[in-house]
Specification:
358 residues, six-stranded mixed β-barrel, 28 strands
């Protein structure tokens, strides 16, 4: 959990019981750092935002925090017995889509485990819902303009219902144009804290298993397979990170289903970057007008636990904004193509992940 209090040109951040201070160049605006969501044609970069601060002058305290929403299980109340739910997945390129109804509008939501909050497409929602505030936003390519927040009274994802969900508004029209599909927005694991998520891209399904207060499956009879890889995960702002090795150097990677291609930070030591065979250059376009040049290549080897993954397609670019957003050094992102290598079992409550390799 993270709460930001703003005092003049400074802000005080309480995050996981630690306190940080940072200078803000504009006394009356919050600078919000966008995470990455990589779309191949065209490349884009944007994602979830910091929760807004509370206690600001003139702000309505009841609207100063992000509403995570109330979950209503299919056909019953929140205290019901739906311990396992299965969701069909669709694909648009390497984007993972779930059919949804948001505020009465039918369309698709992108499953983006690299996002710490829900984002809706301002093309469809710019005029609806109760607006919380407007903030200056920026990404890895610079300013993305002003970003608004709103509350969605009702949302349904393949039968799973949510009420009063907070969301940020961003223009996602370039993704709709590139993929020729109706995109309502994207969401991350913050909506599924009380569930273990099983992601099986080969069979185009996602499962949710309800967890008890200890983080174990509520249905004790549900079978769990033997994992090829079983490891702890790091959870920051509802985003999952793991440790992996390149050339025996321990690095931190974000698990990001919203990234079509895995990403490596451009400021890694030369001996690590030299294991990438560069194939071509292109430009990365963010949510704003700025562009940056990036490299495409093949990473020779990535080691997770004792398992070696070879010949991984990667994008090489600057990840300093993401590191700044999460308050931790991020060396790379493992995108959708990586999730195709097996079935992933992610348990945020227990902070564990298992993988059954194909």
């Amino acid at each position: 959990m993270q709460i930001i209090y703003t005092f003049g040109s400074n802000r005080l951040i309480f995050k996981n019981d630690h306190c940080f201070t940072s200078y803000m160049p504009f006394a009356n605006q919050k600078i919000v750092y966008l995470q990455l969501l990589m779309i191949v044609l065209p490349w884009t970069a944007w994602a979830g935002l910091h929760n807004p601060g509370v206690g600001e002058a003139g702000a309505d305290p009841g609207w100063g925090q992000l509403w995570e929403g109330t979950i209503i299980l299919p056909g019953e109340s929140l205290s019901g017995n739906a311990d396992r739910m299965v969701f069909p997945l669709k694909r648009a390129g390497n984007l993972i889509l779930l059919e949804a109804i948001v505020g009465g509008i039918h369309g698709n939501l992108i499953l983006d485990t690299g996002s710490s909050s829900m984002v809706l497409n301002s093309i469809w929602f710019g005029g609806g819902g109760r607006s919380l505030a407007t903030y200056a936003a920026g990404g890895i390519t610079g300013s993305a303009g002003m970003v608004s927040r709103m509350i969605v009274d009702h949302m349904q994802i393949s039968g799973l219902e949510f009420q009063r969900v907070g969301a940020n508004l961003v223009d996602l029209g370039h993704i709709e144009s590139a993929r020729n599909v109706k995109i309502l927005g994207f969401f991350g694991l913050n909506l599924f804290r009380e569930f273990e998520m099983v992601l099986d891209l080969r069979n185009s399904v996602m499962e949710l298993h309800r967890l008890n207060f200890r983080g174990n499956r509520a249905n004790r009879e549900a079978s769990v397979p033997a994992f090829d890889i079983s490891m702890p995960i790091i959870v920051e702002s509802d985003v999952v990170f793991i440790e992996a090795d390149i050339q025996k150097s321990r690095l931190t990677f974000c698990l990001d289903t919203g990234a079509e291609t895995s990403v490596i930070a451009s400021d890694l030591p030369g001996k690590l970057l030299s294991t990438i065979s560069v194939q071509r250059r292109s430009t990365l376009r963010g949510a704003g007008p700025q562009q940056v040049e990036v490299l495409h290549g093949i990473l020779d080897e990535l080691v997770i636990g004792k398992t070696k993954f070879k010949q991984i397609q990667v994008l090489v670019t600057n990840l300093s904004s993401m590191s700044k957003f999460f308050g931790t050094r991020i060396h790379g992102m493992l995108g959708c193509e990586f999730f195709e290598k097996g079935v992933f079992y992610i348990n945020i409550k227990r902070q564990t992940m298992g993988i059954v390799l194909h």
